Amino acid sequence: MFALPNVDVEEPIEADGMALVSLRDDRIHQLAQEHANLAEYIGKFESEFGNGIPPSIIIWRDDTHKLYSSIEAINGFRDAVCLSVIPYGWAQTLRFNRPSDILYGNWFSVYPWMTDKNYEYVVMHSMAQLALHLVKEIKPQSTPGVTPRPLKPNMTDRTLLDALLKRWSIRYQTENASWDDTALFRSLNMANVSSLLPSNAQVTDYDIGRGVALWVSAFEILVHPGEGQQSGFLQVYDILDKVEWSLSECKEKVYEAHGFKPDQQKRNIACWIYGKIYNARNQYLHGNPIKPDTLVVAGSKRHLFEYAPILYRMALAGFLGLNWTETEPAEPKLLEDYRRRWFYYRHYQGDMEAALATILVTKEERKARHDAEMKRVRFQTRGATC
To answer: How many angstroms from the chain centroid is the CA of residue 368?
Structure first.
């Protein structure tokens, strides 16, 4: 059992005996009734200003596969949830020009102190120290500078999460996982770290450059072909080409992405953006001179760091094969469920593609286009009601 103090999940997220739940969950109620120390512990969480907050709890059944309770499996579950929320939050922010509530992985940080298996003490076991203390003396709190938020169902990319949790169950049922499954959860682990705030109050371009570099590592781990081989930007381009792009701005191959040669085919916008991120990583990690447009696209003045999570989600789509292959059922009773799943599939990916396309225009230009479109719609609506 682990506590996540920065997020309050409104509905349980579950996979084969593992779950992220709120304090309102019946299972937590039962445990709290049976163990007074646990009830005291979960009821003591506060923000840095002393406001009471309800943490979310990762729980698992005792009768699940033994590997599910390993730290790696628990982190893999948390990473799958985190990377199904963060990219979607950025997509909503860029597409609709309004900040999402949860944009960084810090909201999914695990509190270091937890009750022991017998609910007698609180313990902490980290790389820094092993410690034990009394429950009555702990004053647990959320991460300073990260305001606790509710995690609503509509803030999660369910298409991606369902696919990741299915692979999570497969990966942690065996100690001899396939290369692809191992690469996937190694990559998610790196992506989780990449999604953290690059710094807190004292952020600099160096911090953001380091964050971009970590995202590139997450991509390269994901596409690594296996032992004795190498991965690089070309392998990332290939997996982005496997995505079933729908928006014309995203599927047209008209860009000279990083590494382009005159005798080669041009790439789509996703590859072009990744090429810029890859080049920025090289400049920062190799200590090369940094130019004003290293992290910012010159034409649109858009920051590359904002696009890395969205691009990673689409790389996951290519890796997991999240293309729509179902055909519409002939039976009327199956049609409603089919259309519901089709709608959500297109809904999440549509937001991702529209968000990527914002890199082509400035924020001011996009706002002007949006205002003009809303004015046109209002005019047509008034004309229709006259």
So the answer is: 30
Number of separate helices (H) and strands (E) present in the chain = 12, 9
Rounded Cα distance between 364 and 255, Å, is 24
CA separation for the pair 133, 110 (Å, rounded): 18
216 contacts 278 by C-beta, under 8 angstroms: yes
What three-state secondary structure class fits 246? Answer: coil
Half-sphere exposure of 299 (CA within 13 A, CB side): 5
- Provide the token pair at 362: 């400035």
Residue 167 and residue 76 in contact, taking contact as beta carbons nearer than 8 Å? no
Phi, psi of 384 (to 5 degrees): -75, -25
Amino acid at 41: Y
CA distance 7 to 93: 19
Please write the tens of the pLDDT for every residue from 251-297. 899 998 888 888 888 899 999 999 999 999 999 899 888 887 889 88
